[in-house]
Amino acid sequence: VISIPLINYYLKTHGVNKNFVDIDIHKEHNLNQITNIRKNNIVIGDFRKLFQQNYNIIPDTIFYHNPYVNRMWSKIETYYLIK
Asked: Each residue of 28-70: pLDDT tens digit?
């Protein structure tokens, strides 16, 4: 699972037993780990620009939330990366 640390933390605490990669787009040295991602990973969030040169992006699901309840994530996109 590839996402921001907050989403990865939420999934871990709710029992999702997967390998997690934290994306911090504000720290370029952390973006180097993106090039070492294995196939069949799901990405949560709109980070397509980081992967479009090296991976095929396969859309999966879009979740919509009430923006008055959850302003931070009113729309959550998920997709798979295929090398």
From this structure: 655 566 666 666 788 998 888 888 888 889 999 998 988 787 7
Helix (H) or strand (E) holding 48: helix 48-51
Answer yes or no: are the C-beta atoms of 41 and 34 closer than 8 Å: no
Q: How far apart are CA 82 and CA 64, in angstroms?
A: 25
pLDDT tens digit string along 1-21?
A: 999 999 999 999 999 999 898
The answer to whether the beta carbons of residues 54 and 83 sit under 8 Å apart is yes
Q: Which helix (H) or strand (E) holds 62?
A: strand 56-64
